[in-house]
Amino acid sequence: MDNITLCGFMGSGKTTVGRLLASDMGYKFIDTDAAVESKYSMTISAIFEEYGEERFRDMESEIIKEICENRGQVISVGGGAVLREENAYTLRSCGEVIFLDVDAPTVIKRIGKGSTRPLLSGEDREEKVRSLMKERRPLYLRAATLTVDGRGCAKNVVKKITDLLKI
Ligand code: S3P
């Protein structure tokens, strides 16, 4: 009963798909952003504002190590988590890492106008999504053991994952 990690860009459906997948499989669901927020009693936005992105990345790496001490979990990681090879390695060493691949229009539609995501705050959100995605997609592909088309409804994405994993 290894873990299953879902990685991918903000708005790729990691949390929604992850919850559904975990409930179908009888696994525990864990979201690394929620785990960081609960451990430090601060929102992700407040952490970025007060300590900056690098410190947030350290907290994220620490949480991933802690979570990976356990098994039988579906883990949804923040959109930047697997960009540190150390995190990708830790996650791969306790199960499959699935990249939910989506395109920029899907992300833009899903995240809407208001966002709690510090990296997408301010002007020109669409441009930020496009350029960050272009930069990151090769890194998600490198980090993951499997890639699934994350467009469409969560139920269908879960079906694609379970078919791929043959479960
Ligand atoms: C981030 C994604 C966010 C959160 C933080 C940074 C990123 O998580 O970890 O705002 O670098 O892509 P979600 O992908 O769950 O939105």
SSE layout:
Elements: E1 3-7, H1 14-25, E2 28-31, H2 32-40, H3 44-51, H4 53-67, E3 73-76, H5 85-92, E4 95-101, H6 104-111, H7 125-143, E5 146-149, H8 154-165
Parallel strand pairs: 1-3, 1-4, 2-3, 4-5
Helix pairs in contact: 1-8, 2-4, 3-4
Bound molecules: shikimate-3-phosphate.
Structural account:
- With 167 residues, this protein is α/β, with parallel strands linked by helices.
- It is 54% helix and 14% strand.
- It has 8 helices and 5 strands, in the order βαβαααβαβααβα.
- It has a 5-stranded parallel beta sheet with strand order 2-3-1-4-5, with helices on both faces.
- The longest helix has 19 residues, at 125-143.
- The radius of gyration is 15 Å and the shape is globular.
- The mean pLDDT is 96.
- Bound molecules: shikimate-3-phosphate.
- Shikimate-3-phosphate binds at residues 10, 14, 33, 44, 78-80, 117-119.
Quick summary:
The protein is an alpha/beta fold. It has 8 helices and 5 strands, in the order E-H-E-H-H-H-E-H-E-H-H-E-H. The relative contact order is 0.22.
- Secondary structure tally, helices: 8
- Can you tell me the residue ranges where pLDDT is under 50 for at least 5 consecutive residues? none
| Spatial gap, N to C terminus | 12 Å
Which structural class matches the secondary elements? alpha/beta
List the strand order in the largest sheet.
Answer: 2-3-1-4-5
Main beta sheet: 5 strands, parallel
- Mean pLDDT score: 96
The run of helices and strands is EHEHHHEHEHHEH
Strand content: 5-15%
Bound molecules: shikimate-3-phosphate
